[in-house]
Amino acid sequence: MTALAAPALSTGCLDWFASSREPLRIGINAWPPFELLYLAQEKGFFHDEKVEVELVDFSSYTGVLRSYHQGNIDGFFATLNEVLIADNFQDLPAVVMVADYSFGGDALVVRDHIKSLSELKGKRIAYEESALGSYVLERILEIGGLKAGDVTVINRLPEEGEKDFLEGRADAVVTYEPSLGRLLRAGGAKALFTSRNLPGEIVDVMVMRRSVLRDHADETRRMMRAWFKALAWQEAHPDEAAEIMAKRQNVTVSEFLSGLQGAHIPDLQENLQLMGTSGQPGPLFQTAGRLGDFLARHELAKRPAAGADLLHPDLLGSL
Length: 319
Fold this sequence. Notes:
Layout: E1 5-7, E2 24-29, H1 35-42, H2 45-48, E3 53-58, H3 61-69, E4 75-79, H4 80-83, E5 94-102, E6 106-111, E7 124-127, H5 131-143, E8 152-155, H6 158-166, E9 172-176, H7 179-186, E10 189-194, E11 203-208, H8 210-215, H9 217-236, H10 238-249, H11 253-260, E12 263-264, H12 268-275, H13 283-297, H14 307-310, H15 314-317
Parallel strand pairs: 2-3, 2-4, 7-8, 7-9
Antiparallel strand pairs: 1-3, 4-11, 5-11, 5-12, 6-9, 6-10
Helix pairs in contact: 1-9, 1-10, 6-7, 9-10, 10-11
């Protein structure tokens, strides 16, 4: 699969920032909570924190992973499911922060006439064959009492799955915002199953290359502080923040706010509670273990990473 990546404008040259150090390059895809990074950029929070950050857009996690392997990005945002697949990494990155929990923003969109998951039998389902897409599909089939052979699956990138559904080549599609909102607004479709049915199971995290954490921990802290500043500013100025973030996604403010409602974004205090410390691991360690067991059981990962190997909670405690 071919990934589309286009670097966004960085925060610019900072006269106090060592010119020998390139910006922190962070890969993201189009998911409403991740727009907080662009809000941080727009409001000058990276500048205030004296850190230079370059945001790199991708159309799918597949492209993010390829760019990481090629050494083109220092970190990225992804679901915990994806990062748990240790087989995909020569150098396992470190999870340093919880970005959000999906709470309705990931969904199975079906034709209006499909009333239950059991009615998916014999239907064509488009999904991205990533850890997240595969996990959500497996859970849908499991909860619906279906087997893999009961449906025809079509491996598609998110925008391809959306197009297949709209043009009648798929009866259902596993997708997420902003594609989810576009499909529902097009009519003739509904969300039959969402991440609200999987509370706490779809967690987005920020991960960093371990060599970057070793050599540039302070810059990473500064970037994380800018993220939490953007979150606080968004909560204090929701309409203005939505206008800024909606413009970049080319949707209306109301459409962006609707998409943002499909996720919960934890602040610093909640992050500290979720991640805990190396000495006293938080609930995210147990979540990682549960997800890893599922991925191995369903042969979605040969070797899921252990929470203790993957999660790096102490950076949060030093903000």
